[in-house]
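Hi Y.,

Following your request, here is the sequence exactly as I used it, all 317 residues.
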Amino acid sequence: MKVVAIGGGTGLSTILKGLKNKGLQLTAVVAVTDEGGSSGKIRQELNVPPPGDVRNNIIALAKSESLMSKLFSYRFTTNGTLSEHSVGNIILAALTMMTGSFAKAVRYASDILAIEGKVLPVCEELIRLVATYSDGSVVVGETEIAKKIDARIVSVHLDKKACALEEVIQEISEADAIVLGPGSLYTSVITNLLVEGVTEAVRGNERARKIYIANIMTQPGETIGYSLEDHVLEVERYLGIELDHIIANKALPSQDVLESYAKQRSEPVLPRGPVDKRYHFFNLLKVTYDANDPRPKARHDPDKTAKIVIDLLRGGS
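Below is the corresponding structure, written out as tokens. Let me know if you'd prefer a different format.
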């Protein structure tokens, strides 16, 4: 069974970790509008697409115990110019400059790590996400979008025309299932749908099941106050069709985790009213801790989430 997963960095890579080694033909279509951290610096200094999200997903499909996988994940913690940069980002940037193609760079990096499946950037253009808000303001760039918390996003678009890679269109057109999310609603999921050819390919593949995996928590700068239905309606608005299945978390984090998120005005993504039979609720919660960030993270459990996706694909209603 051929599965195409569309998204960004952390959320998409989490799902890929669960889906790999399950006998599926996996393809990840990854956003290229990231502007933060190491990716943002590389993008600005070298004029190449941001490599971070792609790197995360290549690593997710690699053998986790391999030395090369650990090398690609290694991040410098010095106070010098390499601070915050990961080796994988630098390698992808170097390959892009050597070959003249970000897509080729991703392919070569995938070969180096001998990944199970395929990782594709949605396009090769240097594009930025632009958000229009309810207060009439317009904000350019993911980093700035994440900072604005005093108004609701009305719409998003790209700063210039971008066309999806032909291979992306082909993979989507041939897929048995198309999975969107989890991940930041606008900056990881919908940003892919704004690239020319993507939504047309999804709508054109009528036999593929379209599955959306909803976020566990709302996100400052993007979805403050959004219900589960709000997330779904936004995805469907940009997709142009209804989703077949929506997978959502029903487990609440502990009080200390909720309080940590509340400081950022973030809360659980929950339904606001009755939902239809397309919605499937499970305990998907896994709380993790990052060595570089003491705050707890409410994430999807990769194995539980993957099992639900596979059950749906193998005959679930």
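The two ends are 17 Å apart (CA to CA).

Thanks again,
Q.
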